[in-house]
Amino acid sequence: MQVLTLKNLLNIAAWHDDLRWEPFRPGVDIYRFYQDGDQGAAAALLRYQPGATVPKHEHVGFEHIFVLSGSQSDRNGNHQTGTLVINPPGTSHTVTSETGCIVLAIWEKPVLL
């Protein structure tokens, strides 16, 4: 694996189309940084189209979400640009983005759907 450097990440809304996004869920694309096998840690950017939803899922390990642009909501509130959300193991939620957003997601372990 090579070193990955993304410059100007806080201004991703201006250049996100330069990345090779892949479909993840309906209305949500993913740009993977790394994934350690089927049960290990992973990190990626997630790009939500306006109105997109990620179905209810459970966190087996910690999940760190940093909202880089736009906003997303879950049962804990509406999370605007610049917000860091840490979901501990044993928590679950559905995520939606009414306006669209791009987030940095770091998973200690894969989530359960």
UniProtKB/TrEMBL annotation:
Gene3D superfamilies: Jelly Rolls (2.60.120.10)
Segments forming domain ChrR-like cupin: 16-104
The protein, known as: Transcription negative regulator ChrR
